[in-house]
Amino acid sequence: MILGIIGIIVSLLLLITLAYRGVPVILAAPISAVVCLVFSGAPILASYTEVFMPAMAGFVGSWFPIFLVGAIFGILMTVTGYAESIARSVTGWIGSRSAIAATVITSALMTYGGISLFVVAFVMYPLARELFRVADIPRRLIPGTIALGIFTFTMTALPGSPQVQNIIPGQFFDTGAYAGPGVGILGGTLIFGLGLLWLEHRRRSLITKGEHFESPESKKVIGGSADDGSSVTTALSPPNRLVPFLPLLTVFVVNFACTLVIFPALDWSYLQEDTFGGITYDSRAGLWAVMVAILVAIALIVAMNFGQWSTLKVGFSDGVKRSMLPIFSTASEVGYGAVVASVAAFAVVRDSVFGMGANALVTSVVTTSITAGLTGSSSGGMTIALNALGGDLRAMAEAEGMSLEMMHRLTAMAAGGLDTLPHSGAVVTLLIVCGLTHRQSYKDIGMVTLVIPVLVVAALIALVSAVGGF
């Protein structure tokens, strides 16, 4: 049993190392799973085909629609010129002198509007670079500024976010995307405010030390092509500055309407039939609402630009390509988690987690945070943790009288903390997009996406424990 526990630890360290070294997670996860199996003495081939692959396929089956429509929506917002127009409009309203705030708010608006996180990063960098150049702000702060807008409060804290990190807990706790609105808004506001304070402090500090904007551009030109070979070019121009905001507003309105008005008024009793596996409406409501919202927004974009169908068709094709790597990378991590959970030593780890004497909320937050940190993925880490412990956590919460909506919100926020350790694929990608290194920019990324969110979640747990919730 001790050897098995050592194997789990070694496999996790190997996964982190391989990811940090740039090995694709699709390969790193099964390799690390094999190491775990070797130490535990479990059969490798059977575990791969009967444990790893079904878990991986299950994640793809559940979440591929969201990854697909999200990627297509993001690319269509790019090729129509809507994303760039939104960024320039927000910048004009806020002012170029407030380059940091303008970049954070624009990035956050796009993320909360349903555009894929990675697409936002690609779109925002050239715009942020120009803002920082005009304001003479050191370029090393660009990654941290974009990261605050896309990897934190709009991804996990704000209720109604269409990002997958906000939808996953609903599958386990039967909650919706708007779960825990009070604590989510408070937490999101704190992360946003403290993150801005840090970035402005760093701007003043660096300028005092004599640093200025310098831009020896990376040879990896971003905005012309993606790593998967798909092209992203702005081919169209929106007719005015308000039109580009309509698709984002559509995602919000339709998501809100489906979650709180339309879906609750429908009869979902047929879901109990064997054809649908006896699922419950509550476990799927968040997923369906977001999917419908993004599809309606895509239809709106097509309707407003139907005369440019050839360009839109390229956007659909690129969106499909862009959805593949993220979904399969995350699914591969989920497969790895299933293998770890299948070995006998994991039962000891699980019992230790539940034996630490903490309540359901703390247990959920701690396990999700640690798993997200080890895998370098918020969605992958949260899925691994909840797949292994979700049923027990829900039963514990119900026994303790803990609000499942509170569990949803704080568990989602916990996933968005340690997931941005240096080996995180999202961090590595963002730095590549910006043409900067960990040494130049990770200090600020780590502060706004890791240190501040973790401290805020800890403070919210203490507050919830003291006042009993929101």
UniProtKB/TrEMBL annotation:
Superkingdom: Bacteria
Keywords per UniProt: Membrane, Transmembrane, Transmembrane helix
Residues that span the membrane, as ranges: 29-48, 55-79, 99-128, 140-158, 178-199, 245-266, 286-306, 327-349, 410-433, 445-467
Record-linked InterPro entries: Glcn_transporter
An annotated GO cellular component: plasma membrane
GO MF annotation, one: gluconate transmembrane transporter activity
Name of protein: H+/gluconate symporter-like permease
Organism: Nesterenkonia xinjiangensis
